[in-house]
């Protein structure tokens, strides 16, 4: 009997000890382990992922904007202005150059100015004096005469008259247009505004190519004929002139002709006629 009572008391004591240890151990456990596992909310997790993605995208945009700003500042420090956009002065200059300054749409009444047309004016200069202003490029009995200040080739921008001669006679008056830049133009028409009047010219023969990996050149070189008389006379007798090379995709190249260039047109025409040349 006594043994049974002792056994029961021992079991009760052991049970209480185990419970106390279990409680102490449970208090040391991490919350995620001790408590029942919580069910995740898919909507909340998706919203959280979206916010994180948007945050990363915003940070990326800010970095790109900062890099662009830094690059622009570097361009300005090296070149005085951003290479990505024209300065206000250059923008204004380009707008003025591309503006249509022809006056054909205005009505001046009885005193309307008239476009220059061909006239058989007398030759005012001596042949030897005119030849002195020219450079001669020989090819046997054939040779070309062009103004000595002109760079004849495909590596410069230019627009000029020159003579194709045989012996002592000028056979052709030619107009050569040279374009070179880092972008192709593919021009197929030239619009001249001469003393405010519009003259159009379509090149008859063009060649093009590349210089190295960066530059593109285009050249038109045509013999002028009787259809071009008014343009030839206007270019060689005007006060001011501008040429616009009309390229594809709305890209144009504008060239304002200087007083010296206009004078070279006049000299070339004078010498052409002095050497017996005619526009036929």
Structure report:
This protein is of the alpha+beta class. It has a domain at 103-274: Immunoglobulin-like (Sandwich). 40% of the residues lie in helices and 26% in strands. The protein contains seven helices and ten strands. It has helices at 2-28, 31-34, 42-79, 88-98, 127-132, 229-237, 259-274; strands spanning 134-139, 142-147, 158-166, 169-181, 189-194, 197-201, 206-211, 215-223, 241-246, 252-257. Strands 1-2-3-4-8-7 form a six-stranded antiparallel β-sheet. A hairpin with a 3-residue loop joins strand 7 and strand 8 (215-223). Helix 6 crosses helix 7. It starts with a helix and ends in a 6-residue tail after the last helix. The model is unreliable at 29-39 and 74-84 (pLDDT under 50).
């Amino acid at each position: 009997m006594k043994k049974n009572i002792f056994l029961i008391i021992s079991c009760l004591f052991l049970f209480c000890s185990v419970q106390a240890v279990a409680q102490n151990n449970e208090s040391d456990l991490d919350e995620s382990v001790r408590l029942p596992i919580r069910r995740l909310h898919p909507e909340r997790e998706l919203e959280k992922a979206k916010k994180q993605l948007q945050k990363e995208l915003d940070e990326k945009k800010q970095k790109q904007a900062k890099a662009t700003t830094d690059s622009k500042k570097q361009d300005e420090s090296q070149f005085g202005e951003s290479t990505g956009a024209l300065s206000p002065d250059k923008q204004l200059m380009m707008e003025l150059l591309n503006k249509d300054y022809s006056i054909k749409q205005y009505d001046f009444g009885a005193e309307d100015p008239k476009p220059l047309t061909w006239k058989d004016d007398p030759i005012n200069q001596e042949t030897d004096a005119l030849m002195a202003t020219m450079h001669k490029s020989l090819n046997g009995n054939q040779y070309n005469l062009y103004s000595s200040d002109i760079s004849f080739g495909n590596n410069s921008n230019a627009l000029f008259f020159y003579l194709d001669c045989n012996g002592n006679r000028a056979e052709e008056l030619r107009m050569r247009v040279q374009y070179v830049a880092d972008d192709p133009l593919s021009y197929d028409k030239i619009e001249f505004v001469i003393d405010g009047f519009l003259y159009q010219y379509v090149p008859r023969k063009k060649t093009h190519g590349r210089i190295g990996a960066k530059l593109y050149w285009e050249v038109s070189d045509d013999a002028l004929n009787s259809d071009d008389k008014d343009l030839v006379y206007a270019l060689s007798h005007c006060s001011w002139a501008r040429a616009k090379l009309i390229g594809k995709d709305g890209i144009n190249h504008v060239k304002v002709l200087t007083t010296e260039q206009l004078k070279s047109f006049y000299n070339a025409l004078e010498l052409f006629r002095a050497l017996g040349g005619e526009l036929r």
